[in-house]
Q: What sequence folds into this?
């Protein structure tokens, strides 16, 4: 742990501001609370919202896991994990099961989350209606009146044009039957894991200066139509490393002759399955 | 002579205290214990909440019975003390002389987060039957028993819920213990036999 920083980098008045916003966020599930996002020692777009939320909640006894697209060993994940090891001296882990706080970019782990765990999502664009209505004053009004017809229309236009809803990630959800929310760019595959999860879900958007939350055991419904129900992605082959048939797979190009393989995007899940197999053998 | 004290370990006590508040508000009806704080007239948990969340950007309103805490709050939290209820981010009051929920800042339909949090001191908190809570953060229902709160509170709470997404969030405090009532939570009185009649 390096000296010269306050615990977890941020100063105490900033943490208090973030903490007040976080408490209002859990009290109004899915609603975007504005907060005074700070400059961080890395650019907006690199997870500054998630980092500020993590800094505001982190304590000495926490064990932090950071994933980027499911992987613990990519640049963004390694840097953020090192950042908190350095500025807060907290224990870090690669294991989903052992972590108390999991900061994530674009995935929810395959290992089921437990009661008491906190997920922190890095969010690029928090407003689900932004591409349908560019004015913040107008989207605020739409949320105030739960006027979400435009989003249903967008999904309907997908159905009319392609015969199915084509949104593959950041698929819009309705939280506790009231607020329309962007789940951050997680694949559609992860949406069902949000519904009634035993873990607390916190979302931070640094550039856009918004925080929102889903408390544990809260209904999170992916928008759909009776005759075009919400579905998740599936693959016609299992993971090439661990053989999992029920996890989200990344396509890896292996050569320049069209060779490819599909492996788990969640590295911890894949490695644990491999270890278990080795032990059994 | 200034009475009372602040957090022994300001950074980590505030963090521990905040995580407890995050827990009780994200899982309504659960009860947490906050760090022991010595503040004139304020119960320990109310004082810990004040130190954790109020500052120059989050003004507080103190019930006259907590007037002795004003100087302590100004010194240890740097929070302005307001006399107009509607200007307060945090309102501290004992259940016996509590303000109506509708008298506090409710937020705006477009910005419902600009609403007050009421810190209400009660006689005792436990998870015995009394109120049955349900809503976001609760897997099914959770029992919460609150001693020393007026029967009108439930009607007041019902109206508060009807204003959703506007509305007030409540932290119930007894000694060093705290429970949370975010504006989403539904409260039903539990009738035990026929003697404990909760009707008004």
A:
């Amino acid at each position: 742990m390096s000296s010269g920083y306050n615990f977890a980098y941020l100063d105490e008045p900033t943490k208090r501001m973030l903490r007040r916003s976080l408490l209002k966020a859990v009290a109004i599930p899915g609603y975007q609370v504005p907060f005074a996002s700070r400059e961080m020692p890395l650019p907006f777009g690199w997870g500054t919202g998630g980092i500020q939320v993590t800094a505001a909640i982190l304590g000495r006894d926490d064990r932090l896991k950071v994933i980027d697209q499911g992987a613990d060993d990519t640049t963004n994940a390694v840097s953020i994990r090192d950042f908190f090891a350095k500025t807060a001296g907290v224990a870090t882990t690669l294991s989903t099961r052992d972590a108390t706080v999991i900061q994530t970019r674009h995935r929810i782990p395959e290992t089921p989350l437990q009661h008491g765990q906190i997920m922190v999502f890095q969010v690029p664009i928090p407003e689900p209606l932004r591409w349908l209505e560019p004015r913040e004053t107008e989207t605020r009004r739409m949320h105030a009146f739960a006027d979400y017809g435009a989003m249903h229309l967008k999904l309907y236009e997908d159905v009319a044009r392609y015969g199915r809803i084509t949104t593959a990630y950041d698929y819009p959800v309705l939280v506790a039957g009231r607020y329309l929310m962007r789940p951050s760019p997680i694949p559609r595959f992860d949406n069902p894991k949000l519904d009634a999860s035993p873990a607390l879900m916190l979302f931070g958007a640094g550039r856009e200066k918004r925080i929102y939350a889903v408390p544990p055991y809260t209904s999170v419904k992916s928008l759909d139509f009776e005759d075009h129900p919400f579905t998740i992605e599936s693959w016609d082959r299992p993971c090439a490393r661990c053989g999992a048939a029920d996890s989200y797979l990344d396509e890896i190009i292996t050569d320049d002759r069209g060779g490819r393989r599909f492996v788990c995007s969640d590295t911890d899940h894949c490695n644990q399955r491999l270890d278990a197999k080795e032990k059994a053998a | 002579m200034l009475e009372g004290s602040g957090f022994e370990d300001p950074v980590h006590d505030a963090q521990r205290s905040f995580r407890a508040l995050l827990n009780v508000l994200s899982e309504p009806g659960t009860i947490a214990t906050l760090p022991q704080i010595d503040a004139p007239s304020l119960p320990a948990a109310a004082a810990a909440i004040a130190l954790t969340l109020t500052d120059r950007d989050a003004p507080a309103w103190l019930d006259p019975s907590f007037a002795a805490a004003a100087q302590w709050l100004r010194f240890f939290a740097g929070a302005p003390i307001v006399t107009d209820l509607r200007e307060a981010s945090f309102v501290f009051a004992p259940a016996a002389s509590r303000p109506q929920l509708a008298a506090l800042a409710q937020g705006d339909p477009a910005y419902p987060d600009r609403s007050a949090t009421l810190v209400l001191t009660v006689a005792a908190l436990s998870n015995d039957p009394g109120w049955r809570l349900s809503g976001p953060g609760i897997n099914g229902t959770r029992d919460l028993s609150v001693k020393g709160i007026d029967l009108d509170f439930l009607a007041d709470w019902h109206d508060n819920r009807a204003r959703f997404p506007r509305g007030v969030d409540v932290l119930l405090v007894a000694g060093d213990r705290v429970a949370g009532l975010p504006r989403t939570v539904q409260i039903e009185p539990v009738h035990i036999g026929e003697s404990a009649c909760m009707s008004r």
Q: What stands out?
A: Confidence is low (pLDDT under 50) at residues 194-200 of chain B.
